[in-house]
Amino acid sequence: MNRLYPLKFRPIIKDKIWGGTKLRDLLNKKTKTDKAGESWEISCVPKDISVVCNGFLKGNALEELIEVYMGDLVGDSVYDKFGLTFPLLIKFIDANDILSIQVHPNDKLAKKRHQSFGKTEMWYIVESDKDAEIIIGFNQSVDKQLYKNHLENKTLQDILNKEKVHPGDVFFMPAGRIHSIGAGILLAEIQQTSDITYRIYDFDRVDDTGLTRELHTEMALDAIDYTEYPEYKTRYEKTPDVSNPVLQCRYFTANYIELTRAMEKDYIKLDSFVVYMCMEGSFSLHYYENDAEVIQKGETVLLPAEIKNVRLVPETGMGPGGKAQLLEIYIETASPEKKGNDVISKYF
Q1: Catalytic-residue membership of 205
Q2: Concatenated DSSP letters of 77-96
Q3: Structure letter (DSSP) for residue 7
Q4: What does each C-alpha distance from 191 to 79, 92, 271 come to in angstroms?
Q5: Domain coordinates of the chain in residue numbers?
Q6: Which of 64, 105, 125, 344, CA to CA, is 20 to 30 A from 234?
């Protein structure tokens, strides 16, 4: 059997009522309309299984590869826990208009109602227009009845927390946290493998056929975390040429890397795949003896768990000697410990 190698997948483009052209214009995605809202980079959601687009495994679906390579691809402990399901859904999202105000159920509720995983996620802001903002959580102490009153009176936004965003900002969205992406934002999203969303309010918009989109206001009531938190933005260091911890939760770990020179990575103690998402510039991923794969801005690559040593080298083009910015994502199956400025322990 041929050895595994860093895998790229064919992006799955999703047109949305709020989508735009940044996936094409800034990330070089092959979109067919001016309403492209999402690019699913790695997916194991039923009916949207990612397909390899590089190397000898080109044309094979991710689920098929997990069935054949098992722990060699995803890590033995990850395979034991998730089987043929790749546990993360990796996306880029272009919000040309504001998204609906929404919330996602946790594992317990999602299993009871949908036989699905819940949906905890993280946002990394890639690009943003001036004064662009997101909605995340509440700006005051709220209970279910107060929330319902505001919803019925169409004053919900009065009690929601809004944050202006800038490239490089990170926001953690544990299941239950109410949220919305504002207009003029391009972001990367790392989440559990789930497509369960409860749409709460959609600003009375209609689609191309003149119909409003379905709302899930009643289902959302028991899914929402009504707690007000003191801070919603995740703070992290940006020291060049090291893996800077961004956040760690039971579902995934995410680190930020700014490459200014070649960097060696040793994953011998990690029993997991690694995903790299290139946010700026480009870099080459060197593995085995003399093999390499170039990853450009907007590309995502899956490093199989059996590859334990790699070298990341920035490509030229972003200043002297080259430079790249990327996210490093994996799953730590042992009990997560507090890392850096990680606030995840509040929720898990």
Answers
A1: no
A2: HHHHHHTTS-SEEEEEEEES
A3: B
A4: 18, 11, 19
A5: 12-234, 244-346
A6: 105
CA 109/CA 104 separation, integer angstroms: 10
The reply to whether the predicted model has a pTM over 0.90 is: yes
The correct answer on CATH 2.60.120.10 for the domain covering 12-234 is yes
pLDDT at 207: 75
- Kindly report the CA angle at 155 between 37 and 223, in degrees rounded to 5? 60
Residue tagged 């946010």 (tokens): 279
d(CA 187, CA 91): 8
Owner of token pair 């390579």: 69
**Across the chain, how many H-helices and E-strands are there?**
7, 22
> Which is catalytic among the residues 199, 250, 261, 311?
199
130-185 confidence digits (pLDDT tens): 999 999 999 999 999 999 999 999 999 999 999 999 999 999 999 999 999 999 99
CATH superfamily, domain 244-346, is Jelly Rolls (2.60.120.10)
pLDDT per position as a tens digit, 304-335: 999 999 999 998 755 445 799 999 999 997 64
